[in-house]
Amino acid sequence: MILRWISRLFGRKPAPAPEFPHYVTAKLNAKLQPLDRGFVFEEPLTAQLEARGLGTVSGGGTMFSRETGIDWIDLEIGLHDLSDTTITTVLETLLQIGAPKGSELQFSDRDPIPFGKTEGLGIFLNGTDLPKEVYETSDVNSTIEAIGAALADIPHYWGYWQGPTETALYFYADSYQAMVAAVTPVLARDPLCEKARLEQVA
Fold this sequence. Notes:
Elements: E1 6-9, E2 22-28, H1 34-51, E3 55-65, E4 69-79, H2 84-97, E5 103-106, E6 113-115, E7 119-126, H3 132-137, H4 140-150, E8 157-162, E9 166-173, H5 176-189, E10 197-200
Antiparallel strand pairs: 1-3, 2-4, 2-5, 3-4, 5-6, 7-9, 7-10, 8-9
């Protein structure tokens, strides 16, 4: 039996700060590398909470496995209290940032609150089955630039994961179908995208 190997990168739950003794965890259905997690979610949420004196993001993690790549990310959030106003601020801020569907806010003593609004597109580039000359003459950065240009009119953010047989590019926006329609012509004319597969990841 092959055991699933899971690791949490760059994240831990810190000791509670005196002014923010209540902790909640935002488990986000987003496939982002640690640096992207900080830029996309941690920094904007921290700025909003600290500006109102409600709390701060004190840590976070990226969960991944060798088989499937990045599974999800989470944020450890220290709060002044767990009032409806505070919790609503956390949720509304994450939704404004673009938290994907399938996310949830977790508590130590109550049921989680599901939330999320954006949908996710995974583009999995085949890294083993294309002609050798395709890999030798293609530049994945050019492919990424072309996909980004196709999505220019669709506000989005993205992450990536490079596995043993595939390179995954993850995009998040209001509509999965709109993203598919925008990128399909790019994939059809790019040799590196032959045999690529698309998957809705949120």
